[in-house]
Structures are given as structure tokens and as C-alpha cells.
Amino acid sequence: MHDVVIIGGGPAGLAAGIYAARGGLKTLLCEGKILGGQIVLSFEVENYPGFPQGISGMELIENFTKQAEKFGVETSYEGVTCINDERECKSVTLTNGSCIKTKTIIIAAGASANKLGCPGEKKFTGKGVSYCATCDGAFFRNKTVAVVGGGDSAIEEALYLTNLVKKVYIIHRRDQLRAIKILQDRAMQNDKIEFIFNHTVKEIQGDKFVNGLMLENTKTKELTRLSVDGVFIYVGTTPNTEFVKDLIKLDEEGYIITDEKMETNVEGIFAAGDIRSTPLRQVITAASDGAIAASSAQKYIEAKF
Ligand code: NAP
To answer: By CB count within 10 A, which of 120, 153, 181, 292 is most buried?
Structure first.
């Protein structure tokens, strides 16, 4: 029997692991993909305290992982298909079919990138359609690309792309950006960036590789073709809560509702990070959630077992 099973190996899960294992709990972290979550796709994290020069998402996660391993967090690279609450204890079922018994669970499975859902998106994924500028930006050196979206991710990654490409169009469906002001100002001042407001992507076109986008003006419905060599899509994220939705209470957008101890509607099951209903989704808030969830799990075990 484990004391705690943590589902998800991003900043929330790894921070929970550090706190739980350091607190002496027998801790298993399950990560079905790669450790690190969405932040490993970020070229630079410049708002995580302690790194005044900034740090790459990958390097930050390597540090989190080393620290978790140092305190004895055990890692399984199996995904989790379901969780159960069996009163005396909980259980977690893995993709290989095995069932792990545990006193507590911390759900830190994060969120996944949304798709546009337009014709051509699937066909050209990996052939000019990308969801990760840090991974794929170098393929577009001195070329023209588009970034779709108006949030922090879209603007941050468009700015990153300007270091590599000739020109970046930012296509946003409204005329107001959602991104924080500091990013907006930087993008507005960057000569390589041109905004196309009030437009959506109707189709991604190409031959073997992307060569253009069919855009629709949201006000006039007029269609125009934009020639680009690639398109980076940052249109928000969806919480990975499908596997817990029958047991755990979610908000109307599908995020897990917790109290200030990070406890869900089920005693002894906690949630942390981007999967949680929260006003701010950052590495620092994910790490903080993880620490609180682990500490709450420890107090729950001390009181119950
Ligand atoms: P987001 O804040 O949800 O923004 C998504 C953007 O995509 C919005 O501008 C939205 O338009 C647009 N959009 C959504 N669906 C669309 C569609 N079907 N077609 C066209 N446009 C569409 O997502 P995000 O930028 O990925 O950020 C996610 C979270 O991570 C946020 O909490 C953000 O603050 C955080 N984050 C923080 C940092 C940082 O602090 N360094 C960096 C990256 C992300 P509307 O505005 O019209 O809704």
C-alpha cells in the first residue's frame, strides 16, 4: 500500500512528490507521457522566482525531477485509466491493467493543447502545423509563419519565433488580446510581428507541406488567403479530467473543484496544478498547489490511519 499516488509529472505533480517523499510518505508518481508537462514546451520561463536570467522549461523540470528523485519518489511511466474510492483506501488502475492501492491520491494530470478542428489541421500536423514553437521553430528559419491565438502562450511563442523566422502573423479572433500587457507591448513593438485581428482560420492549405491559410473575417465573413510556410496553434487548453469525471466534482469547464487544502469532493483525494479550477495557471501556482496537496495528504493519513 502506498501512502500517496500522484497522477501527472508536471510542476504540480513533481512538487507534490518532493513534499510527500521528503515528509516520509511512500510516494508513487505516475506519468503516462514524459515528465514535465506543458512547461517543457516553453523556450524560456522568465517569471519563476529564483532565476533572474530566466530558465528553459526543460531545465527547470530537470531540476524538479532531480529533487524529487533525491527524496525517493518512485516513478511509473504508465498512464492512469481510472481511480476508485474504496472507503478504507483508494486505488489507481494503470494502462497496463495493474491496480495500485493507496491511502491518498493527488491528481495533477494537467491540461492538453486544444485543436482548431479545421480542415487541413490533422493532415498537415508535423508538415507545417505545430503546437510547439520551441520544438519546431528551427524548421522555419527565415520563413513566414502564423501563430493562432491571443493568450499568453500565443504571444510568448510568437515572440520566440521572431528570433528564427522572417515574419510572424498573429491571427486572433477578436481585436483584444487575452495575454498580459507586458507580452502585448513587446509583440506590438516587434517589427517582425503583424497582427491580423477579427479573423479565424477556416482551412489550412498545402501540397506536401503547409503553404497557406484560408482566413475568415469574423465581422464581414469575407474569406482571404494568407501565404505562410507554417502555423503554430495556441488556442487554449482542456483539462485532462476524463478519467476522473464520474467520481470527482468538476466545474462547468471541466476543471476539478477543490477547497483551500486542495481536497476534492472525495476525502483523501486531492488535486493540484492546471487541472484545478483556479484563477491563475503558472508553474509557481502549480508547484504551490502540489506542496499544499502533499501536506494535506500527510495530515489526512496521520488522522485516519
Ligand atoms: P488561453 O489563455 O485560454 O488563451 C487561448 C487563446 O486562444 C484566447 O485568446 C482565445 O481567444 C483563443 N482561442 C480559443 N479557441 C479558439 C478558436 N477555436 N479559434 C481561434 N482562437 C481561439 O490559453 P493559453 O494562452 O494557452 O494559456 C493557458 C494558461 O497558461 C493561461 O492561464 C495563461 O495565463 C498561462 N500561461 C502563462 C504564461 C506565463 O505566465 N509566462 C505563458 C503561457 C501560458 P479569446 O481571447 O477570444 O477567448
So the answer is: 153
pLDDT of residue 94: 96
pLDDT at 234: 97
Written as one string, the DSSP assignment of 66-84 is HHHHHTT-EEE---EEEEE
For 145-204, write each residue's pLDDT tens digit: 999 999 999 999 999 999 999 999 999 999 999 999 999 999 999 999 999 999 999 999
Q: Which of 41, 44, 51, 173 to mutate to test the pocket of ligand 1 (most atoms within 8 A of CB)?
A: 173
- Beta carbons within 8 Å of 229's beta carbon, 6+ residues apart: 128, 140, 143, 144, 145, 209, 210, 211
Q: Ligand 1: which atom is nearest the Cα of residue 150? A: 9
Whose alpha carbon is nearest atom 34 of ligand 1? 152
Distance of alpha carbon 89 from alpha carbon 305, whole angstroms: 10
- CA–CA dist 87, 218 (Å, integer): 52
Ligand 1 contact, 48 CB (< 6 A):
no
Q: The pTM is what?
A: 0.88
Residue of minimum CA distance from atom 33 in ligand 1: 152
Q: Say if residue 287's pLDDT is above 80.
A: yes
Kind plus residue range of the DSSP H or E element containing 269:
strand 269-271
What 3-state DSSP class applies to 64?
helix
Antiparallel, parallel or unpaired: β 144-148 and 167-171: parallel
Task: Check residue 242 and report its DSSP letter.
Answer: G
**3-class DSSP assignment, residue 263:** strand
In this prediction, residue 55 carries a pLDDT of 94
Q: Phi/psi zone of residue 236: left (φ > 0), alpha (ψ -120 to 50 degrees), beta?
A: left
The number of beta carbons lying within 10 Å of the beta carbon of residue 250 is 18
